[in-house]
Automatic annotation (TrEMBL):
The gene is CDKAL1. Pfam families: Radical_SAM, UPF0004. Belongs to the methylthiotransferase family. CDKAL1 subfamily. It comes from the Eukaryota. This is tRNA-t(6)A37 methylthiotransferase. It comes from Ursus maritimus.
Amino acid sequence: MPSASCDTLLDDIEDIVLQGDLKPQDRHSARKHVVPKARKRNTQKYLQEENSPPSDSTIPGIQKIWMRTWGCSHNNSDGEYMAGQLAAYGYEITENASDADLWLLNSCTVKNPAEDHFRNSIKKAQEENKKIVLAGCVPQAQPRQDYLKGLSIIGVQQIDRVVEVVEETIKGHSVRLLGQKKDNGKRLGGARLDLPKIRKNPLIEIISINTGCLNACTYCKTKHARGNLASYPIDELVERAKQSFQEGVCEIWLTSEDTGAYGRDIGTSLPALLWKLVEVIPEGAMLRLGMTNPPYISEHLEEMAKILNHPRVYAFLHIPVQSASDTVLMEMKREYCVADFKRVVDFLKEKVPGITLATDIICGFPGETDQDFQETVKLVEEYKFPSLFINQFYPRPGTPAAKMAQVPAQVKKQRTKDLSRVFHSYNPYDHKIGERQQVLVTEESFDSKFYVAHNRFYEQVLVPKNPTFMGKMIEVDIYESGKHFMKGQPVSDAKVYTPSINKPLAKGEVSGLTEEFRNRLGNHPSSVPHTSAAARRDPASSRTAPRLQRLHQDCALRVSVGLALCALLLAFLVKVYN
């Protein structure tokens, strides 16, 4: 067995080098005799590889994203903004979920079924190994739910940072942005209104005028997500409307959790906003006002009646009553009684002849008796609302109503059926057959057999599918009616109004791509998709430019890092051998 000790000690490790061996400096001087051999490169193959990064690349901005939005028009507006920013950055928004690399799921927390669909979509995405980003009211209100663990979340007031969240998620990270937008400590309405967006319908612009509300309804989970009232300034809303009309929009929807409360936090009011907006609405275009609760709209009834009589504002208002029992309304903390609701409805029906008033009703709220429910049935029979949203009560986790004594499920279902039967017992449009109406055509029917238009009272009128009608205001003769619609025959010699001097954007085209936003992306303006005719003809090429630029930048970064490492290694070797 060899000895553990050595008879001869080495003074230094370099003594191992024999005298005949080349020294490091000799090897260095001998490099001049090396003749490099040029290697031919397949130029065509190189260009293809340069333009097409490897399939396992994690370079952000080149992936396909599928979006799904549940819930209200406010949520839909948020979804449009997120899609616009992602498309502007270079991501491809696809309608094919299976082809997508990442799913962006924009949720609604109003009712259990909507959250169930949301939860099932998350499960399906995980089964298909998709990257996932969650948005909307569900994760904002309850981000610590078990089925949300480990997933990226973007809050309802952070949608202007969706590109960052998606980028980090694609890299394999989990990111959560749930903070509030504030200015000098004051809560803002949300992300900026001039961000890029992709309108689901290029003819309709959805503008959220405020977020949150001033109520504290015991059944509402949305309050947990959207918070207290925070309004956008009037000038910002007017500018957004003007920009929309310049992009070919012919119909604007104003939305929020309670439009009637608009401005109370910033020293203004809903009528003040509406009077400013009607000044910029072009001929042939229309404005639709969203949902408002009775307590706040009742303070502005005189002004609201004047505005709803304006020729460019739909004579339509959505005022949820929820129940016709004062006892139930008190338990809901709705802050009004049935008499208050009736006063608002009666006043508007008198001052705005023909107005369409839509309302909501919850069946089976905790503590609702048969007598309470019958009072609600009588209200529907009395007013015969042409648009009625009937909802079975669902206890939402974390709300006071979820802790109350519940009405049996079978009773709730039966009351929902009974009220639906009452609603379908009358036809609100039969008396309008034979009328000549002016209607604005904005979309295609679900069965693709008709175009969908709306008259002065935002009543649905189906018209023939003539492409020249889309986005125009035309005159029709009503010849048929159903429960939810009328059918109109266009008048041959009638004038067709074109609302905007500009052609609408193509479906899927990015709106509002300002120079400021381009600079925020860090891209050269020419590398970001434009709303030009060239971009409309070839949207694929407009997406390729920013992707290639980011690919080149990434390659340059990698080369720089590699050269720096080589330099450090060489310096280390020189130090060792010298």
